[in-house]
């Protein structure tokens, strides 16, 4: 038995007895825990054996215990469109997703390559625009994007890094091939759930966790803190770092406060900050204190009412003047949203070839750009086979899954595409991989994606969190994994290679720890 990854494989030793899930149904989908014969994959044997030892009732009790812990910790998110109440506990499934060491090595290399190219693109597109002048990306696609901020032209962040923190969404198809689904470069959320999911799983499954050789994730807060300190203005020896939040009503406020607390830095709102003489200060009980680095969790448009939206009460008047003067660093830099645009996503493989002179390690999902006449005609003629997406939407909004849509819904989206083709892309409907999920005390397959988190300090200093947020579509047959659309999450276990650190089942989340001690 082998798992193929970009021409590489590892051979499973023949065994007389391989753990299996005899009552589980893969339904013809690629399953990440077992193969098509319901036999465990080489790196999932310990977990499958555990399921064979536990009764469904015991597993369900563990699920309830974990949900109670998450509730007590206040791990929530906000659904703005839910009239019944916006505050929700993020659904969690007790069955982890396991990623082999071989596959993760491939993912890690592909994500590092991708973020290097995206940072080169952002630096270029706000300055020389060589990639446009050379005809690789049409100028009209850049200039027509609402996320392209002309106010950011000429900016030069330290080390030419625009995007320091990225969350890139990955999927696997029915062959097990990994694709990049989209890039999230502005304010990627979800890493707090990764850390808390791991905390409760270690506490509830210590034995199988310890024997599965899982790589640690609890050093993320320390690495994030060191990155933020490391991007401070060069003239600052002991930088002050803050996390800038829109406030308690933001959907990801829990994460903002969680990360600030774990890094040991202040969580601030725009009203807590003031600009004086081209420097940024924080109001404290002891007077004004200078701020050198902002991990901003508010969108570009609200950062500075003097530069962007004049009606913003979330940002800081004059902040962009301080930034242009080189007296404060922002992570991520304003303007990164152009690389979030789903139309621009289609050109990332070309960026990799253009800037790095390399072939992409992780492929994009094939994408039709409706601005192009031929692509638009194909999309309109094949809407029953495609997934249609709005270029500027996120969170699962603005998506039509053609095979599951009604004729009326497809007609509605066709009219939208004809009216504003620049705002739409389409992709084939891939059969997403599945992972066993506990549904009413029974294991059923549910579709998943994966959002790893990438920290970039310099072009040659990129680190990928080993694992990430596995999002699961809890509704049977659904391909939409977003929490705002009824999705949940799973812990993600990346198997360690020889010589790599292994997480202890006893360790919890530690504020700014030394990673060598994890």
Automatic annotation (TrEMBL):
InterPro entries: ATP-dep_Glu-Cys_Ligase-2, CP_ATPgrasp_2, UCP005522
Region described as Disordered: spans on this chain: 1-23, 482-518
Residue stretches of biased makeup (Polar residues): 1-19
Domain Circularly permuted ATP-grasp type: 96-473
SUPFAM superfamilies cross-referenced by the UniProt entry: Glutathione synthetase ATP-binding domain-like (SSF56059)
Pfam families recorded: CP_ATPgrasp_2
Name under which the protein is recorded: Circularly permuted type 2 ATP-grasp protein
